[in-house]
């Protein structure tokens, strides 16, 4: 069975792997296949349990706080409603998409596809639906939202009594099962059920590979739909360099206002107290919550900066046709793709915090001018890592470069 490595484009013959084996690309050291701990039934159980738990996690209160006889509660959607009412429309829409809507779509689709696969039904849209369920893995964030809740809980608990509601307990289980379903899902086994891979094409016949499901097709099929996942087949991601460069420049332009302007503003007995990202980190350290301070430093400052600087390095290396540390750069590309979503922790903390801290005349809190650019940096860097094609680094390094000078024929 021949598949193409998604990171370097090398065609590989992979025999059926025994239990516990790992197939590693000899060119870029990408883990192409792993059987240990993976099963379609296990992933189906975890995905459908996550889908069911999302209902109480959304409908029931996550946290309650009480102050001078008044009680406030926070639900998954109430932060979105409060942000919308306070005119933070972009932040409200993106938090609603990542924390409420896309988790339902992702786990609903995944449960449906895996159920049909196990029942032996193969409707023509099954491959497309499976591709979307995998694609939404990065954008559906119940696990990241849970970490945002944990940071919000610790910050509030330092000041006043706070209780976790049934919605919070269901969210903890849903987030845990979400991570477990990702670990248990054997995507390649599902792809093979939908459309088995063939033997390698003859060496003299050019081939292209689907960049999503790795299926190898004759080069003449370029521009048509992949028979397995219905993605349009292209030798490389179209306009990858131009799109990624534009997104990285936009990311750098928004990174500075995101860090210089406050993310939230507290009103305490009529006095306004702005909180930039760095202020929030300092407060966590002063409250002796230094593990959370370190977490917010990494997710809100270090990871966005690493993504922008890392992608700039990768783009420059393609322009220069560099052969330097190609395996390291391919690993960096994979890391940037995987860690991007965790930058949303601080924004989710605000979304949990906001409905709880509305004691008019005493304490209230609101998002501030730093929140929209910060969230846009996260989205733009995630899009940039999706539009970047790591195979271009290998193409550029392996293409012989001409060093012709003017006057030389
Ligand atoms: Zn590879
Ligand atoms: Zn495909």
Structure description:
This protein is α+β, with helices and mostly antiparallel strands. The protein has 3 domains: 77 residues, no CATH class; 147 residues, Butyryl-CoA Dehydrogenase, subunit A, domain 3 (Up-down Bundle), CATH 1.20.140; 163 residues, Butyryl-CoA Dehydrogenase, subunit A, domain 3. Helices cover 55% and strands 12% of the residues. It has a 4-stranded antiparallel sheet. Helix 2 packs antiparallel against helix 3 and helix 2 packs across helix 12. The longest helix is centred in the first third of the chain and has 31 residues. It starts with a strand and ends in an 11-residue tail after the last helix. Bound molecules: zinc ion (2 copies).
What tags apply to this protein structure?
409 residues, alpha+beta, Butyryl-CoA Dehydrogenase, subunit A, domain 3, four-stranded antiparallel β-sheet, three-stranded antiparallel β-sheet, globular, binds zinc ion
State the gist of this model.
With 409 residues, the chain is α+β, with helices and mostly antiparallel strands. The chain contains 14 helices and 13 strands.
Structural class per helix/strand content?
A: alpha+beta
Number of separate strands:
13
* Strand order across the largest sheet: 11-10-13-12
CATH architecture of the largest domain: Up-down Bundle
Poorly predicted tracts of residues: 402-409
Tell me the fraction of residues in β-strands, as a range.
5-15%
Tell me, what is the CATH class of the largest domain?
Mainly Alpha
The arrangement of helices and strands along the chain is EEEEHEEHHHHEHHEEHEEHHHHEEHH
The CATH topology of the largest domain comes to Butyryl-CoA Dehydrogenase, subunit A, domain 3
Total individual domains: 3
Radius of gyration: 24 Å
End-to-end separation in angstroms reads: 47 Å
Hetero compounds: zinc ion
Which overall shape is indicated by the principal axes computed on the Cα atoms?
A: globular
The main sheet comes to: 4 strands, antiparallel
**Overall mean confidence score, pLDDT:** 87
How large is the count of helical segments? 14
* Proportion in helices: 55-70%
């Amino acid at each position: 069975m021949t598949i193409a490595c998604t990171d370097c484009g090398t065609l590989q013959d992979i025999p059926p792997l025994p239990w516990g084996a790992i197939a590693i690309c000899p060119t870029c050291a990408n883990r192409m296949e792993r059987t240990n701990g993976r099963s379609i039934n296990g992933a189906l159980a975890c995905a459908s349990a996550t889908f069911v738990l999302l209902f109480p996690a959304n409908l029931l209160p996550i946290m309650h706080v009480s102050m001078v006889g008044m009680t406030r509660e926070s639900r998954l959607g109430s932060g979105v409603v409060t942000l919308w009412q306070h005119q933070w429309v972009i932040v409200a829409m993106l938090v609603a998409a990542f924390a409420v809507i896309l988790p339902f779509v992702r786990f609903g689709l995944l449960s449906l596809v895996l159920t049909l696969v196990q029942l032996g039904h193969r409707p023509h849209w099954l491959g497309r639906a499976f591709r979307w369920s995998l694609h939404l893995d990065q954008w559906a964030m119940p696990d990241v939202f849970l970490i945002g809740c944990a940071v919000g809980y610790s910050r509030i608990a330092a000041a006043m009594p706070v209780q976790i509601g049934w919605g919070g307990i269901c969210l903890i289980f849903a987030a845990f099962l979400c991570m477990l379903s990702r670990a248990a899902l054997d995507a390649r086994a599902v792809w093979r059920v939908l459309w088995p891979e063939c033997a390698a094409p003859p060496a003299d016949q050019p081939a292209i590979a689907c960049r999503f499901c790795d299926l190898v097709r004759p080069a003449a099929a370029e521009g048509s739909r992949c028979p397995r996942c219905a993605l349009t087949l292209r030798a490389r991601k179209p306009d990858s360099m131009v799109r990624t460069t534009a997104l990285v420049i936009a990311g750098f332009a928004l990174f500075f206002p995101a860090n210089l302007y406050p993310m939230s503003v507290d009103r305490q007995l009529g006095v306004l107290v702005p909180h930039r990202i760095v202020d929030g980190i300092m407060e966590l350290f002063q409250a002796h919550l230094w593990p959370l301070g370190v977490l917010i430093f990494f997710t809100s400052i270090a990871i966005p900066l690493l993504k922008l600087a890392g992608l700039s390095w990768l783009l420059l290396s393609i322009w220069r046709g560099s052969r330097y540390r190609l395996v390291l750069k391919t690993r960096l590309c994979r890391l940037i793709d995987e860690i991007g979503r965790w930058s949303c922790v601080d924004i989710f903390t605000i979304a949990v915090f906001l409905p709880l801290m509305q004691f008019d005349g005493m304490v209230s809190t609101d998002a501030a001018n730093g929140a929209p650019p910060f969230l846009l940096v996260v989205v733009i860097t995630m899009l940039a890592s999706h539009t970047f094609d790591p195979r271009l680094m290998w193409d550029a390094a392996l293409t012989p470069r001409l060093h012709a000078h003017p006057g030389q024929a």
